[in-house]
Amino acid sequence: MIELELWLLRMLGLAVLVLLAGYQQCVSATTGSLAPPEFLQHNGSLYAVCKMRPSTFLPDGLPKVYGHALFKQDHPQGKLKMLIRFSGFPTESDPVPRALHIHQYGDLSRGCDSTGGHYNPHDVHHPNHPGDFGNFIPEQGKISTMIESDATLFGPLSVFGRAVVIHEQVDDLGRGGDAGSLLHGNAGRRLGCCIIGTSSPNLWNTQQKQLARRLRSK
Length: 218
Ligand SMILES: [Cu+2]
Ligand SMILES: [Zn+2]
Hints:
single chain; alpha+beta; Immunoglobulin-like; 9-stranded antiparallel β-sheet; 28% strand
């Protein structure tokens, strides 16, 4: 009799474990499998930072770009917001628009040249890559703006660990009429780059306030 009770108890315990495992799988199917643990720590948002530095071996006479790109995304299906603050461009009267992209590899072993081509998870032409941010015109040597992007921090297509690259020239946005145009927009040399890494909300929160203040005072 006691043996039967013990057996029943054991079976009950097993059933509870199976149920719990099923529940956990359910939860991770909706959020966990798409998100690193920070998702729960930061109210369901993910944050990222990329600290821009001039490419090593950058030829003399080319601008040395410093600054950062910050990222925030509120949920896996939400738009990625990106706060850009770069400096070091020449303060010319007719500034050159500069192309900005996400490149495939977070490999800076040969400066920005080892970051590969454009991050292209869907095998499509430029400028339809998720990290094709277009052109930015510096004002007084600086780019300071907030944009939205189709890139994501969540799931298998996450851009964590990939590179942001700022270019010497304008992106022709696929209208150049040659093979390079559909590959990379003929944006020229890579002035600076950085690797997208995980971040706390702190930088985003302070920088967003500063940007709002700058825009108000314009
Ligand atoms: Cu690029
Ligand atoms: Zn592209």
